[in-house]
Design a protein that fits this description.
14-stranded antiparallel beta barrel, two-stranded antiparallel ribbon, 18 strands, about 10% helix
């Protein structure tokens, strides 16, 4: 990790370079937002499903990906006693990240919540440990070694709107310190503090029939633009739109369940514009004139190549899960990006198990491309759910 040169500044320098798109630093105009760790997948169940999960069945991990589902953990159709509709839950998540590229980079997450019959509320945190980073300045002069880190603290409240639908609202504080205060290419970086909001929706289609459809949506990281340094350019928070469906089938008389799910994800930040050598916009929209909230709507019309390019910016996650008697779970998935917008593709596998009030989920990422830095990434999630 100590030999890793300027890894924390690569993101910052790329932001500055995008503003000078005459130089082909980001010629495919890949979307870039601040705090990318906010959109990493932390829970092993969703990770095993190709990172899909916005519409899958509720469990203790739901506090992380869609807390609107928590109010459906127990309902009148599946609970013998109404007293069981009050539940306390805890989930822990761990991932060694980019382990094929560097050592010492890890993801952690923790969630605590209480789920009642019609409401749920809780608290969570995400922590991204980027390890010890060697900071280099102009002329590749060594500055210092620095412990790079980012984290967020969030709270949420969920409300059941009907027997099938629910909403959740969240508020979070985000802190990012990628390189402390250092200067490279006349840019002095600094720690960043920000506030953002989240919105979630879930429809629970579970009934007494042999099959049912769940669907859900989320709009996360809603907030103003931020600056990593003393230059004028400000960066958009990684506002992310997720839409997903999950089709479930009961197999046989033992309540074994087979589930198929699909998620579509769109980062709602402006597509980088094309500029000439005078830094004038010649195609697309000038990102400077778009606000942090306005990008939710305006980002759909910023791509220089129009709607075709906008649609290429959507990523897709496909997953399937087999549940054996509410005890053992086998999962597989596939994640894909458009070839011109990152071209990241990989398969995922996972297992899960429940014993009394405890649950354990594991996932493993298998890349179909040689040199993929995410290859062999594994995630571990442990949860505990108790009834009061």
């Amino acid at each position: 990790m100590k030999n890793l040169k300027m890894i924390a500044l690569l993101f910052l320098v790329s932001l500055q370079s995008i503003a000078q798109a005459y130089t082909p630093v980001n010629e495919n105009r890949i979307l870039v937002g601040a705090f990318p760790f906010q959109n990493f997948t932390y829970d092993a169940r969703s990770a095993a499903l190709g990172e899909a999960g916005i519409a899958i069945s509720p469990d203790a991990n739901s506090a992380l990906i869609n807390p609107a589902k928590l109010v459906f953990l127990y309902n009148k159709e599946t609970t013998d006693s109404i007293e069981k509709a009050k539940n306390l839950g805890l989930s822990l998540h761990y991932t060694p990240y980019y382990r094929n590229l560097i050592r010492g980079m890890n993801l952690y997450a923790l969630n605590l919540f209480q789920a009642k019959e019609r409401t749920a509320y809780g608290f969570g945190t995400k922590y991204f440990d980027a390890g010890s980073v060697a900071i280099y300045g102009d002329n590749r002069a060594f500055i210092k070694n620095f412990k790079s880190k980012e984290f967020s603290l969030n709270g949420f409240y969920s409300l059941k709107l009907s027997d099938k639908k629910s909403l959740s609202f969240g508020l979070k504080y985000i802190y990012s310190n990628l390189s402390a205060r250092s200067t490279t290419r006349n840019i002095t970086t600094k720690p960043v503090n920000a506030i953002a909001g989240d919105l979630y929706f879930y429809h629970d289609g579970r009934n007494t029939k042999k099959r049912w459809l769940n669907y859900g949506a989320s709009l996360t990281n809603i907030g103003g633009k931020v600056s990593y340094g003393d230059y004028k350019r400000r960066t958009f928070q990684p506002t992310l739109l997720k839409l997903g469906v999950a089709q479930n089938f009961i197999l046989g008389k033992k309540q074994n369940i087979l589930m198929f799910t699909i998620d579509g994800n769109k980062l709602l930040v402006p597509t980088p514009s094309v500029r000439n050598i005078q830094n004038e916009v010649i195609a697309g929209r000038n990102e400077v004139n778009i606000t942090g909230i306005g990008t939710i709507f305006q980002s759909w019309g910023t791509a220089p190549d129009g709607l075709r390019e906008t649609m290429r910016e959507i990523t897709y996650s496909f997953g399937t899960e087999f549940q054996f008697r509410e005890f053992l779970y086998a999962r597989a998935g596939y994640y894909t990006q458009n070839k011109q917008k990152g071209d990241i593709k990989y398969f995922t596998l996972g297992l899960g198990g429940k014993f009394k009030n405890f649950g354990l989920d594991l996932s493993f990422l298998i890349s179909n491309e040689q040199g993929q830095v995410l290859a062999n990434t594994f995630r571990v999630s442990l949860n505990h759910l108790v009834s009061k």
